[in-house]
Design goal:
With 257 residues, the chain is an all-alpha fold. 59% of the residues lie in helices and 2% in strands. It is built from 11 helices and 2 strands. The protein has a two-stranded antiparallel ribbon with strand order 1-2. A hairpin with a 4-residue loop joins β1 and β2.
Length: 257
Amino acid sequence: AHPDNYKTKKVLIAARYAGLEIETPSGGAATSTGRIPVLETEQGCIFSSTAIARYVSRINRVVGLYGQNLIEGGMIDSWIEFCTHELEVPLCTWVLPVQGVFPEVKEATACAKEDVKKALTVLNNHLLRHTYMVGHSITLADISICCAMVDGLELVLDEAFRKPFGNVMRWFNLCMAQPEFAAVLGSVKFCGGAGKAAAAPKEAQAKKEAQPKKEAQPKKEAAPKKEAKGDKKEEKPAASPEQARKDKLKKVVKEGG
């Protein structure tokens, strides 16, 4: 069984409450049966995470993971079945494409979101008047539902989606405050949709600053002014003395004949 799979983690949490140590080796009976996870015991093997979790929870009756009486045991089974069929199926349809397990089908994802919302609404209404799913202490019902929600809370259930389900979030935080849960699940970082939305304007501003500023175009040189029509014509250079004498002589000869 893969230790990071939520189905394995619910078995490990139940084992901590029961005071048992469970190893998670690779291979073994899983290779011959084709089903994982598989619990190997001296008396035989038990496969399927739900069957293993039920077996482990019943070992130590004092802890009360399977309730204090038959009616509580029946209620726990009811919530486990609800978790498997009403919550895990649509949540996996939504989460697994995000994890890259298989390509997303948009129509299936849209339906899954609505089904998850319906399941969380049922849980939220129930937890309005109950601290735990069944009875007055942690049971396998709490363990199963809490583990099933972890991947969704980290990857897809953003702040806006979680907001209407305050009772569920209060209960989830209560479960995570238990040392048995914290030892197996660690710290759960909620998906923050608000953070992504706030980052968008910053990215736009960064892109805007990164663009080079346009260089200022040089001003056109002023065209030279046209000369006024009344401007005086250029004066001819003064004649030299020798040229003046010749001109005077020509004039005298012309007049005298």
